[in-house]
Amino acid sequence: MGGILGLLVLILDIIAIVDALKSSMDTGKKALWIILILVLPVVGMVLYFLIGKKQ
């Protein structure tokens, strides 16, 4: 079960990073979101989808 959950988090993190790269945010904000997603995978991904996509 843990392996499936880890794989799901990895896939969602990759989706969040690709979405951040394709967004119209400036380069600094993109870099900060990507770093946050990489350092805190679950929390960073959730925060990006709740807060980052609105920018």
Short description:
Helix content is 80%, strand content 0%. The chain is mainly alpha-helical and 55 residues long.
Could you please describe the fold and organization of this structure?
With 55 residues, this protein is mostly helical. The protein has one domain. 80% of the residues lie in helices and 0% in strands. The chain contains three helices and no strands. The chain has helices at residues 2-22, 27-39, 41-50. α1 (2-22) packs antiparallel against α2 (27-39), α1 crosses α3 and α2 (27-39) crosses α3. The model has no long low-confidence stretch (mean pLDDT 92).
**Beta-strand content bin:** under 5%
**SSE order, one letter for each helix or strand:** HHH
Q: Span from first to last CA?
A: 35 Å
Q: Helix proportion of residues, in percent?
A: over 70%
Q: What spatial form do the alpha-carbon principal axes imply?
A: elongated
Category by helix and strand content: mainly alpha
- Uncertain stretches of 5 or more adjacent residues: none
Mean pLDDT: 92
Task: Specify the biggest β-sheet.
Answer: none
Can you tell me the number of structural domains? 1
The value of Rg in angstroms is 11 Å
Number of alpha- plus pi-helical segments: 3
Q: Count every beta strand, where a strand is a DSSP E run of 2 or more residues.
A: 0
Q: What distinguishing features does this structure have?
A:
single chain; 55 residues; mainly alpha; 3 helices; 80% helix; elongated
Question: Mind sketching the topology for me?
Answer:
Elements: H1 2-22, H2 27-39, H3 41-50
Helix pairs in contact: 1-2, 1-3, 2-3
